[in-house]
Amino acid sequence: MRHRIINPMAEIYKHLAISILFMFIGFFIGKEFLPVSFVYLANKILMFFMLFLLLTAIFSRKSIIPRSFSMNFVYVFTFIDGILMYPILSYYLQSLGTDIVINVLIGAIILFALLAFISHKKDAGHFLSLGPTLFASSLALLVVCIVNIFIGSSVTNLIISIVGLVIFSAYVLYDISLIKYDISMGNIVDKNDLSIHVLNLYVDFINILLDLLNIVDRFND
């Protein structure tokens, strides 16, 4: 049965918070059950994981992923994502310490909320013109990430994180603007129509968090 949505924006933020909670549940389950040796693979896994998130961001915005599907798929995705993030987050917890990681997490939340607020205050569709530039930038970043897997440059890795932070910060502006546009056009009428937007915002947030962690870790060295 399809349930009509009264306040789509509030529902999207609610499901985004639940999705992030599922990610952390997945992380703690990974922490309990994955071998400790996985932690030492974090540096290598990180680049492949970033490729995975980049591909998800690209696919979701080019209709390769359906625009309407069950929210349960988002929860399953974020839960598995949390398990996959265990070695990466464990690496940063060991390298930076719990306090710094928590501060970076708070910083990512504040940055995300600020960008969402800015976009929300603009007219519906205000930032949609960023779409082609962000798509091209994402593809270029994907290529650089693949090349860096083979060259393993720490400088390039830092540049990737800085550029990625800019791209996905801009994507928050774009995605909130797209949500407002879809609401104004009547394209969001039930819970399934929220799923692609929740997934996009989740990918934005996780990329911002990982990029910030990597930048802080590089400068901490």
From TrEMBL:
Pfam families: Bax1-I. Keywords: Membrane, Transmembrane, Transmembrane helix. It is found in: Membrane. Its main location: membrane. It is a multi-pass membrane protein. The keyword Repeat does not apply. GO terms for cellular component: plasma membrane. Coiled coil: none annotated. It comes from the Bacteria. The chain crosses the membrane at residues 12-29, 41-60, 72-94, 100-118, 130-151, 157-174, 194-216. Belongs to the BI1 family. This is BAX inhibitor (BI)-1/YccA family protein. The lineage of its organism: Bacteria, Bacillati, Bacillota, Clostridia, Peptostreptococcales.
